[in-house]
Amino acid sequence: MAFVRDRPVLAFVGLTMAVSWGLWWPIAGGRLDPEPFGTLATFGPTIAGLAVTARLHGLTGLARLGRRLVSWRVRPRWYLFSLGFGPAILLVAVGIHRALGGAPVVTSLPSPTILVVGFGYVLVTSVAGEELGWRGFALPRLQRSYSALTASLLVGAVWFGWHLPLFFTPGDFHRFVPLPLFALQIVGFSVLYTWLFNHTDGSLVLPHLFHTASNFGFFVIPVLPTGPGGPTRPLWIGIGLLWLVVAIVIAVAGHEDLSRAGSSVTYDEFER
Q: How far apart are CA 11 and CA 46, in angstroms?
C-alpha cells in the first residue's frame, strides 16, 4: 500500500504490464489462445487504472473517475477533431502517395452500417480497455510533476512499450509495421491526446472517440503494410503529417500546458 500511495503511476504501469504482457507474451509464443485472452489483455490499462484508484480512493475515487466518462459537454469543434482528425490525415497521406505515383490503396468505403458497427466494435473491444488507464489515470497524475509535453512523452513511451508483444504475435498486423514508425505514431498521438484532454477539462469521452476513430481509420483506409516488406510510404507520409500538426500544436499551445488556456488538468482537478 505504501508503494501504491507513494508511486501510483509506477504501480499502475506495473499492474498494466502484468495483466497485458502476462497474456500477450504467452499468446505470442503459441501457449495461449488469442480469443478471448487477447481481448482481455487489451483491458490491462483500464483494469490497472480502476484497481489502483480503488486501492487509493475507494468507491469515491471510482465515482469521480466515472464522472469523467460521461463528461460530454464540450465545444462541438472537439468532437469534430476527435472523430475526423485520424481518418482525415490518412486520406491526405493517401492523396499525396497517389500524387507521387503510388498505387491506389483505397477502392471503396464500407457501407454506413458497417462503419457504425465497426466503430462500436473497436470502441468496446479495444479502446475501452485503454483510455481510462492512459488518460484517465496516468496523465493527470504525471501533469502534477511534469510539463504537459513531458507527461505526453512519458505516457507515449509506456504506451508504445505496452504494445511490444504484438510485434511478435503471429497473424497480428503489428508484425508488419516498422517499430520506429509505430513509436513515432504512438508518441505523436499521445501529445495530441493531452492537448485534447487539457482543452476539454479532462473529459474521457473525447479521448475514447479520438482513439476509436483513429484506430478504425487504419482499417477503413488501408495504409498499413499487409505483409513482410509491404509498402510503407503512405504510412510514412501520414506520420510526417501527424508530427507537422504536433509541432504546430506545441508552438501555439505551449509545451508547459499544451493548452491555450494556460493550465493542465492535474490529479487534484481530476478528482473534484
A: 13
Q: How far apart are CA 104 and CA 236, in angstroms?
A: 16
Dmax (CA) of the chain: 59
Say which DSSP state 225 is in.
Answer: -
- Residue 106: in which H helix or E strand, if any? none
CA dist 43 and 27 (Å) reads 15
Q: CB of 241 within 8 A of CB of 161? A: no
| pLDDT digits 0-9 by tens, 107-166 | 567 788 888 999 999 999 999 999 999 999 999 999 999 999 999 999 999 999 999 999
Check if the beta carbon of residue 138 is closer than 8 Å to that of residue 46: no
Q: Cell 489502483 identifies what position?
A: 52
Q: Which three cell numbers stand for residue 34?
A: 488469442
Residue 165's SS3 state is helix
Beta strand extents in 142-219 (DSSP E only): none
8-state DSSP, 201 = T
Whether the CB-CB separation of 173 and 224 falls below 8 Å is answered with: yes
Whether the pTM exceeds 0.85: the reply is yes
Instruction: Read off the C-alpha cell for 209.
Output: 472517440
* Owner of C-alpha cell 511534469: 146
The four Cα atoms 67, 117, 185, 176 give a dihedral, to 10 degrees, of 140
Q: How many CB atoms lie within 10 A of CB 37?
A: 15
Residue type, 103: A
How many beta carbons lie within 10 A of that of residue 19, not counting itself? Answer: 21
Helix (H, G, I), strand (E, B) or coil at 36: helix
∠ Cα 58 268 55 (to 5°): 20
Check if the beta carbon of residue 151 is closer than 8 Å to that of residue 158.
no
